[in-house]
Amino acid sequence: MLRAEFPDLRAFALHCDSIDVLAEFRNRFYLPSETIYLDGNSLGLLAKDAERAVFRVMQDWRERAIGGWTEAQPAWFTLAEDLGAQMAALVGAGADEVIVTNSTTVNLHQLLSTLYTPDASRPAILADVLNFPSDLYALSSHLRLRGLEPKTHLRLAESRDGLTLSEDDLIAAMTPEVQCALFPAVLYQSGQLLDMQRLTAEAHRRGILIGFDCSHSIGAVSHELDAWGVDFAFWCSYKYLCAGPGSAGGLYLNRRHFGRPPGMAGWFGHRKATQFEMSPDFEAAEGAGSLQIGTPNILSMAPLIGTLPLFAEAGMERLRAKSLAMTDYLMTVAEEKLSRYDVQVVNPREAPRRGGHVALRHPEARRLSLALRAEGVIPDFRPPDIIRLAPAPLYNTFTDCYEAVLRLASILETRAYERQGEAGGIVT
């Protein structure tokens, strides 16, 4: 349809940008000068609203000192709950089922310590070979803590192509020995969006608890965790949510699990009304708030005070629609401009199976990523041969997508990537 209506893809980009209902949000971010930033699935850009929120918290610290815990607006003492209630709308959950706390992997550890209860008949955890490594490290550690061998009891469903997962294969791996399953909502390399509703229904049919790592989906994909019956989920907030490097993560606990004592209890998981009575006996808060551990990192949570209202204002329906339109356009341009250079689009094409980024495969992906940066385009490299391009609907444009591909085509045509050599080091 794109080619039929707009044979000139640049003209189509300009047309889309001219009718973009989210265009005004772009001015509310700090955009790197003379740079096309397409790495929002690793670190979102700084929103001016987030900056003001941080300054406001700093001002409260300066002027109120200890009084900020109860006198600041919003008060620090209940900030995790207040932000959790706002974040719940992004994942289709009740306000008391979401809490903003800890980092992503710490939240997974807390959820596993609370919900993973192996016995002789169901000792195993099911994950997949394409899962984010930190999640697999956490799963293995919980098996060891319970005297189980990860090589035996961590079941990893295979991938047929090394990039995507088949829901049929994941369901087939839900054997009677599995007590708990964990999958990514969106695969961090290929950008595949899993059918969370189907997987949850099939897991529960087999008596298996199921959770999802939503780090690459929250803020880019609509979720209905309650309606789907998901048991637990967790995520970071520094990607599409634009809360800054190392900002506090979030977790979801389905209310059917309310009342379970947290596996790792701490004083901020205590019932708020009696927390400062300092009783030696732990009285868990109701809801997901019970899974908090220590004192919340207020400065790491502060940017969310500014960014979550942006998402409420934009609306996930509009954000998802623009994300799908941009990634569809990006794939169209990439196939026209890059296929002659053996660049492959390897993420799923169907909208219901696609997250928020496009994955391009090329043998020289690492050096191409460096060369793109030299040409003012910030992509993302994932070994061994994937370049990820993530147009964020709040601040990227269709023209960004077109120009990025055009510069990549020029790099390939002139073989400019060869000048990057074989230097080592981290490519974020």
Protein described:
With 428 residues, the protein is α/β, with parallel strands linked by helices. The protein is built from 15 helices and 13 strands. It has helices at residues 2-5, 9-18, 48-64, 68-71, 79-91, 104-115, 133-145, 150-153, 167-172, 196-205, 225-228, 298-314, 316-338, 365-374, 398-414, and strands spanning 36-37, 98-100, 124-128, 154-157, 178-184, 209-213, 232-235, 250-253, 344-345, 358-361, 377-378, 380-382, 386-389. It has a seven-stranded mixed β-sheet with strand order 2-8-7-6-5-3-4, sandwiched between helices. Helix 10 links the parallel strand 5 and strand 6. Helix 2 (9-18) runs antiparallel to helix 15 and helix 6 packs parallel to helix 7. It is globular. The model has no long low-confidence stretch (mean pLDDT 96).
